[in-house]
């Protein structure tokens, strides 16, 4: 996005410099010069809109990719937690059985 922002800033700076030079050296009447300036501004605005549109598309793609990666990571994490939970339950059940055996010995 930074690259697009720099490009947009360079386009605006170039348009402003071109407009200033055009005004200083314009051989045409003021109305013609203003029309040329308006065309230049319109072209610059369109270029800027295109750059912003491209930048927002890049951001949208990166966000979609990051969301997809996050979903995958979350699913992996939940799967691992589920497996670990089963292991812990099995271990606790084993210990409980051992404790019941020891308790049964003391009950006699």
From TrEMBL:
<dbReference type="InterPro" id="IPR024623">
    <property type="entry name" value="YtxH"/>
</dbReference>
<dbReference type="Pfam" id="PF12732">
    <property type="entry name" value="YtxH"/>
</dbReference>
<feature type="signal peptide">
    <location>
        <begin position="1"/>
        <end position="19"/>
    </location>
</feature>
<keyword id="KW-0732">Signal</keyword>
<protein>
    <submittedName>
        <fullName>YtxH domain-containing protein</fullName>
    </submittedName>
</protein>
């Amino acid at each position: 996005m930074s690259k697009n922002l720099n490009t947009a800033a360079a386009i605006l700076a170039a348009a402003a410099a071109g407009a200033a030079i055009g005004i200083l050296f314009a051989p045409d009447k003021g109305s013609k010069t203003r029309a040329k300036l308006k065309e230049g501004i319109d072209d610059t605005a369109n270029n800027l809109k295109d750059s912003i549109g491209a930048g927002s598309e890049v951001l949208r793609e990166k966000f979609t990719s990051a969301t997809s990666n996050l979903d995958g990571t979350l699913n992996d994490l939940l799967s691992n937690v589920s497996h670990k939970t089963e292991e812990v339950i099995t271990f606790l059940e084993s210990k409980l059985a051992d404790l019941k055996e020891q308790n049964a010995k003391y009950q006699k």
